[in-house]
Write a structure and sequence with these properties.
With 476 residues, this protein is mainly beta. It has one domain (8-475): Porin (Beta Barrel). 8% of the residues lie in helices and 58% in strands. A hairpin with a 4-residue loop joins strand 13 and strand 14 (344-353). The longest helix is centred in the first third of the chain and has 8 residues, at 146-153.
């Protein structure tokens, strides 16, 4: 899903270590989350039904549809985050990590204000996104090295990492390094964290067939990134030190450790309109307002060069940063069709998110320049999909299936960059007012990431997370 040369987690090394790239903003505008197991099973199409606590997330106007006075709901998930990488033509490498979390915990209620007006209220916690990911890559690179990349980024020895590691030197007035290619490269990446929200909403019936709803969300999250990277002279090509022309150096290997921790807090809201035509048809329109995030981060990097004679040289850098990110409006439309004779409900929805309006604010000039890159490289993002829910008359159960597709936010991208979400689920009614929901959800998408220096060293990442979730809903 990321464009060729702009993976933020590379922590580009031409400037003091930082993590301020387009992907920092995109992560706050993700569209692949789900609030409850039932909504997750129906995908984005759930917005066409929107008649329980999850309406708070999709269309707050649907809160008036909760049939009882009070609804209590909660859920848990287990995610198996599988990944596969392709790097430098080597055999693909698979990795995986697991995560367990609370999907949601909340309460909703409806009350008659008078004979003509019904009011719906909801408040609760929702896990909006899980950032868990582990990946590995490795291969022999005959044409470039991160050492050469560092050398070419700065002409000042005092700020050049390769020079400070004794892997580059000044010859003829310019910095050079003999270590430019033919190295074994390998990396291990771990991403963790999530985005959470505490949300509240209210809905009013405008008439017997129409309702209007509003929601407010306080968002908070943490993202942690770590990478262990190594370059090794497996061919023993760099095996002696030229102290005059620096045409060679007794280089053995480079080890690089990178760490990043980000904290984010934000506030947003939404408005929704729901129109009902009898009990058969529902139409919904929503607008999610921009989210204003405040981001603080801490980062560090330690690089160590090892030499054939047993010497080694280390460089460590660390720092802190802060900036704001503003996400764009998100507009959605949905439809739901219920056929009571068959117990079938069909739903479909679409949402548009113009990520070209993402913006960094209250930041240094180097970061503010990314706002131009956002306009040049990104494009509006669309999510669409549908679902089916079937409740057979003779069974205390419901069965669900859904599909969602989310287009890439980049103008130019690779095949497979569209996110595809497949989901299925079921509900078991333990009592008429007590429902146990189950979800099985798997996601597929691919992205091209940079190891360093844009197109100099890239790997293709295929992500295949599988989520199992269960939730309990009680109404009285």
């Amino acid at each position: 899903m990321r464009r060729i040369a702009v993976f933020w987690a590379v922590l580009v090394l031409s400037e003091p270590l930082s993590a301020q790239f387009i992907e920092d903003a995109l992560r706050f505008a993700r569209m692949d989350g789900f609030p409850t197991p039932r909504a997750g099973a129906l995908g984005i199409g759930y917005a066409g039904i929107a008649d329980d606590f999850a309406a708070l997330y999709y269309n707050p106007a649907g809160l008036v549809l909760i049939p009882s006075s009070v609804e209590l709901s909660g859920g848990l998930l287990f995610a198996h985050n599988a990944s596969r990488t392709e790097f430098l033509g080597t055999t693909p490498v698979t990795s995986a990590s697991n995560s367990t979390a609370l999907t949601h915990l909340g309460a909703a209620a409806t009350q008659r204000w008078n004979r003509k007006t019904r009011i719906g209220l909801a408040i609760g916690y929702i896990l909006e996104n899980d950032y868990e990911l582990t990946l590995r890559y490795g291969g022999f690179n005959p044409s470039s090295s991160i050492i050469a990349y560092w050398t070419d980024q700065s002409s000042r020895p005092s700020s050049n990492r390769a020079f400070r590691l004794y892997l580059a030197d000044t010859v003829g007035g310019r910095l050079i390094t003999p270590v430019r290619d033919s190295l074994q490269q390998s990396g291990f990446v771990r991403e963790r964290g999530g985005m959470h929200s505490l949300s509240g909403g209210i809905a009013f019936e405008l008439s017997q067939w129409a309702a209007l709803g509003f929601s407010v969300s306080l968002k908070y999250g943490r993202y942690r990134y770590g990478r262990s990277y190594t370059e090794s002279d497996v061919l023993n090509r760099y095996n002696w030190l030229d102290t005059v022309g620096f045409s060679n150096v007794d280089f053995d290997r480079l080890e690089l450790e990178e760490e990043l921790s980000q904290e984010a807090q934000g506030i947003t809201g939404s408005i929704g309109l729901l129109v009902r035509m009898g009990e058969f048809l529902r139409l919904g329109l929503t607008a999610a307002f921009p989210t204003f995030f405040q981001v603080t981060e801490k980062f560090s990097q330690e690089a160590t060069a090892y030499f054939d004679n047993g010497d080694r040289r280390s460089v460590r850098e660390s720092g802190e940063n802060s900036y704001n990110v503003i996400t764009p409006f998100r507009f959605g439309a949905a439809v739901g069709l219920h056929l009571p004779q068959t117990g079938l409900t069909f739903c479909a929805a679409a949402s548009y998110n113009d990520v070209t309006q993402l913006e960094f604010t209250d930041a240094p000039p180097a970061l503010l320049r990314l706002n131009r890159a956002i306009l040049e490289q990104l494009v509006g993002q669309t999510a669409w999909g549908g679902g089916i829910e079937w409740t057979p008359e003779l069974l205390p159960m419901s069965f669900r299936v859904g599909f969602t597709a989310i287009t890439s936010p980049y103008q130019q991208d690779i095949a497979g960059a569209t996110t595809r979400i497949y989901s299925t689920g079921a509900a078991l009614y333990l009592q008429p007012n007590l429902r146990l929901d189950f979800l099985l959800r798997w996601v597929e998408w691919s992205e091209l990431r940079s190891n360093y220096g844009g197109s100099l060293s890239q790997y293709l990442l295929h992500r295949r997370p599988v989520t199992i979730a269960a939730g309990l809903t009680y109404r009285y």
